[in-house]
Amino acid sequence: MAATMQSPVIYVCITCRHQGNQDAAAETEPRPGALLAAAAERAAVGTEVTVRRLRCLANCSRGPSAAMRCNGSWTYLFGGLDEQCASALIEGARLLAGAAEGILPWRGRPEILKRGLIARVPPIGFEEVDA
Amino acid sequence: MAATMQSPVIYVCITCRHQGNQDAAAETEPRPGALLAAAAERAAVGTEVTVRRLRCLANCSRGPSAAMRCNGSWTYLFGGLDEQCASALIEGARLLAGAAEGILPWRGRPEILKRGLIARVPPIGFEEVDA
Predict the structure, then answer these.
(1) pLDDT-derived band at B2, boundaries 50, 70, 90
(2) Going by DSSP bridges, is the β-strand pair B9-13/A117-121 parallel, antiparallel, or unpaired?
(3) Global ipTM
(4) Quick one: which of A21, B76, B110, B126 could link to B122 by a disulfide (CB 3.0–4.6 Å)?
């Protein structure tokens, strides 16, 4: 695996509601997930980060949600986000793009990407050494 | 994307403790995650499913955890598992391997892979149509 990853992509779920609000009728439009996606798109302008909208990361009970990865990196999923987190997502994606071994470092990671971490999954073909 | 996926892989976190038990001293050895990995390896014998052990899926508060995917499929992450879930994991991975569009169907999915679903992330290069 290359020491430096490339092509950071952030996937933002546009159907996400706020945590604890699974009542469709009570939700405002546009949905919080769509607002987060729009904010992330604005924050990504002029950077190497691509923001992609999608419909469901199946993290519905802890949304709004976004995932990020680069070529060959682990994929990180975050929840409990809102529009204010857009710049932290971009910052995190750029941190991941420059990270060794495709692992988002804890040190220097924006705070919301620490407490909002839901899970991570390994890159294709990953094999743990000594497991 | 091919209509039929291949090479189902299940990643089992061997460091997972039971939900609500984050106290290392109170945990038994081998850990529940390692027991799940061993059970999944046994259940995979004679199938096309590969079981890989790894150290952390960052789903620590809702473990034991496992992820599954095939070539080109979405990756699914499950939590709240135990040894008894091993055959459901194998069954789910085989269902995913035969699924259209790389999406694990809800119908016919083992029950624990419904209520234990933590999140899913899209395949590399995924772009939502019309989002």
Answers:
(1) very low
(2) unpaired
(3) 0.90
(4) B126
User: A119, B77 in Cβ contact below 8 A?
Assistant: yes
In contact, B79 and B118? CB cutoff 8 Å: yes
Tell me, what amino acid is at B69?
R
> Residue A10's beta-bridge partner residues?
A51, A68
List Cα–Cα distances, A124 to A80, A98, A102, in angstroms. 27, 19, 12
Cβ contacts of residue B87 below 8 Å, gap of 6+? Answer: B43
The position carrying tokens 């499913």 is B49
CB contacts of A14 in chain B (<8 Å) are 131
Q: Do A121 and B77 touch (CB under 8 A)?
A: yes
Cα B19 to Cα A7, A28, B79, B81, B110: the distances in Å are: 35, 34, 9, 9, 20
Q: Cβ B11–A57 below 8 Å, yes or no?
A: no
What pTM does this model have? 0.92
What is the rounded average pLDDT for all residues in chain B? 91
A to B CB pairs, distance under 8 Å: 78
